[in-house]
Specification:
With about 280 residues, the chain is mainly α. The chain is about 65% helix and about 0% strand. It has a two-stranded antiparallel sheet. The protein starts with a helix and ends with a helix. About 30% of the residues are buried.
Length: about 280
């Protein structure tokens, strides 16, 4: 059993690195659409192309496109012009690999250690969700913007997850209204904070991200833990910068979306809630 689990985790990690490589391109090519920049090519043509070096425009060979390994073997440099390759590509591929390994472990536990067609179907459904979340993570971290072009499809995916049971492969509409009420309950304080502070305390789209991700929580206790964990993750990132590197201050604008997503993944994959947190102590 353990040997098969390790193999599945390795496969999921490898699959995730491939997805991460694609998401890197997706996040970059979304910028003209989000910021209404003029471009001669459509969004589809911009992502449906061979990868090239942004400086010398050399088309990359297949061995230069292997996630993680290519970055290491090329020593983070283009083989054509020796231009440095951004560490972002390496980070996103590893991060995405870990996320998909975590996803498999989460579903493996959910399906009582059985890999079947229902679990695989849900795995690929979650792939769509995770692609959107990683795009938001990168976009918000770089531009401090959560694009509606990503958050709206995620909302519909979340609603479908609420009304469809993948384990029985049947609809369960009775769960939708309680999930909606709980999601609005936790998202509204973020909307109110944005409204009362006129956007100075929190971004407008953060409440929408909380609304969407709350659909995936199992109850109010887990949802509450997820919300507070978002602030804890943000504090872990921000406080060292304030006290040691001094790159940010209390007036600096720090994107909250990545911390919401990290907290969501940790709480979901490890099935954390306030009860599990209290039992730990």
């Amino acid at each position: 059993m353990i040997e098969f689990l390790v193999l599945y985790l390795i496969f999921s990690f490898s699959f995730g690195t491939i997805i991460g490589s694609f998401v890197n391109v997706l996040a970059i090519e979304l910028e003209p659409n989000v910021f209404s920049q003029k471009t001669k090519k459509s969004f589809w043509s911009r992502i449906n192309r061979r990868s090239i070096c942004p400086k010398c425009k050399k088309k990359l060979e297949f061995f230069e496109l292997v996630p993680i390994l290519s970055f290491i073997f090329l020593r983070a440099k283009c083989s054509g012009c020796s231009n440095k390759i951004s560490f972002r590509y390496f980070f996103v591929e590893i991060f995405s690999g870990l996320v998909f390994a975590g996803l498999f472990y989460f579903l493996f536990q959910k399906y009582f250690l059985i890999v079947n067609g229902f679990m695989i179907t849900e795995f690929f459904y979650w792939t769509l969700i995770l692609v959107g979340l990683i795009v938001i993570f990168l976009f918000d971290f770089k531009h401090k913007v959560i694009p509606n072009i990503v958050i709206f499809p995620l909302f519909f995916l979340a609603v479908f997850y609420s009304i469809f049971n993948f384990q029985t492969f049947s609809f369960q509409f009775v769960e939708f209204f309680p999930d909606l009420v709980r999601s609005v309950f936790f998202a509204f304080p973020f909307f109110a904070l944005w409204f009362l502070s006129k956007g100075r305390a929190i971004g407008f789209a953060d409440w929408k991200l909380i609304l969407v991700l709350s659909f995936f929580m199992v109850d109010y206790w887990q949802n509450l833990f997820f919300v507070f964990a978002s602030f804890w993750v943000g504090a872990i990132y921000s406080l060292p910068l304030v006290f040691f590197k001094k790159k940010i201050s209390m007036k600096s604008e720090v994107p909250f979306g990545p911390f919401i997503i990290l907290a969501f993944l940790i709480v979901l994959f490890f099935n954390l809630s306030y009860f599990s947190f209290l039992n730990f102590f």
